[in-house]
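> call design_seq(struct)
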């Protein structure tokens, strides 16, 4: 059984700032989840934190390409090295983002691994949005967190889509997309390119367990797969603490079942969690619910609980009463 190793990747580099003077809050997610005892409840090894470059969008303008492109490039290379070391050590990496641009580091690690084992690695992409904006279908690009699926399948500027000359990290037909909304603007593009897709409505209709099995069957020819979970796949009614909430998502219990079905196989090589924003969770309630969902969903990876042994209480012994020796009478003088 593989032990879970938790690695923090608190990068905001793929997001545009909420306002001109603020910074996205997703970088705080790993800390918020750790505060709710995630590592203890998963019996996980602490694999540390990979500190990202400084967030500074500067004077970026539409047409300049992806913002923070050089910083994301360098961070992705470092992240791939850390993930690769965890997998090589026989552990299951759980990467806590951060925004969806961390997928580039995970994808690079999987591409390297595929070359080592002589096979293709697939991707199960669980997200409320397709993140498929690229120069071929949009007037301009800019935020890598909204373009990560396009980038990891080889679409976009070379310093992100072709790191180390390994474009693409995943083939289109080796990607399964789950949970996007019916009205996603790039859904038809995904279908035309050959991606296997199941939007949230179909996922709920078919059931999370059967959807997980369906996804695994689509990737049966791969040597394994990586699991990407964007928290905005959940409905805002149960998880409003995300960067871009979108109605029509799934429930917490459905995410639990989906996770269990996807990680309950050696083919699942690791996973990442993205876009939870503690700035929208002032009392920590949603962080606690998310941790409980992860613990339940990742149960197949947890060591079996040892049965609690009731301590043996010795039977109290009745103290032996000694018969007092009668006092001898002395003869009278």
């Amino acid at each position: 059984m593989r032990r879970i190793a938790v690695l923090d990747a608190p990068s905001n580099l793929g997001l545009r700032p909420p306002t001109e003077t603020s910074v996205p809050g997703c970088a705080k997610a790993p800390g918020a989840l750790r505060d709710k005892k995630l590592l203890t409840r998963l019996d996980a090894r602490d694999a540390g934190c990979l500190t990202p470059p400084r967030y500074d969008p500067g004077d970026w303008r539409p047409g300049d390409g992806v913002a923070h492109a050089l910083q994301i490039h360098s961070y992705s290379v470092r992240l791939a090295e850390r993930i690769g070391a965890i997998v090589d050590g026989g552990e299951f990496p759980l990467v806590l983002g951060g925004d969806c641009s961390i997928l580039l580091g995970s994808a690079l690690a999987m591409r390297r691994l595929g070359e080592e084992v002589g096979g293709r690695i697939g991707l199960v992409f669980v997200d409320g949005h397709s993140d498929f904006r690229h120069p071929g279908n949009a007037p301009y690009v800019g935020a890598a967190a909204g373009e990560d699926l396009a980038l990891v399948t080889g679409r976009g500027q070379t310093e992100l889509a072709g790191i180390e000359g390994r474009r693409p990290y995943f083939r289109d037909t080796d990607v399964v997309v789950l949970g996007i909304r019916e009205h996603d603007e790039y859904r038809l593009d995904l279908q035309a390119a050959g991606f296997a897709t199941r939007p949230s409505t179909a996922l709920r209709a078919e059931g999370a367990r059967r959807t997980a099995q369906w996804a695994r069957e689509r990737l049966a020819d791969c040597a394994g797969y990586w699991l990407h979970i964007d928290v905005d796949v959940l409905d805002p009614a149960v998880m409003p603490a995300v960067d871009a909430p979108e109605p029509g998502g799934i429930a917490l219990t459905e995410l639990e079942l989906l996770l269990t079905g996807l990680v309950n196989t050696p083919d699942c090589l690791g996973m990442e969690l993205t876009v939870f924003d503690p700035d929208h969770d002032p009392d920590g309630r949603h962080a606690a619910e998310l941790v409980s969902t992860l613990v339940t969903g990742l149960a197949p990876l947890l060591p079996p609980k040892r049965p609690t042994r009731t301590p043996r209480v010795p039977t109290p012994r009745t103290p032996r009463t000694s018969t007092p020796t009668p006092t001898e009478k002395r003869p009278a003088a």
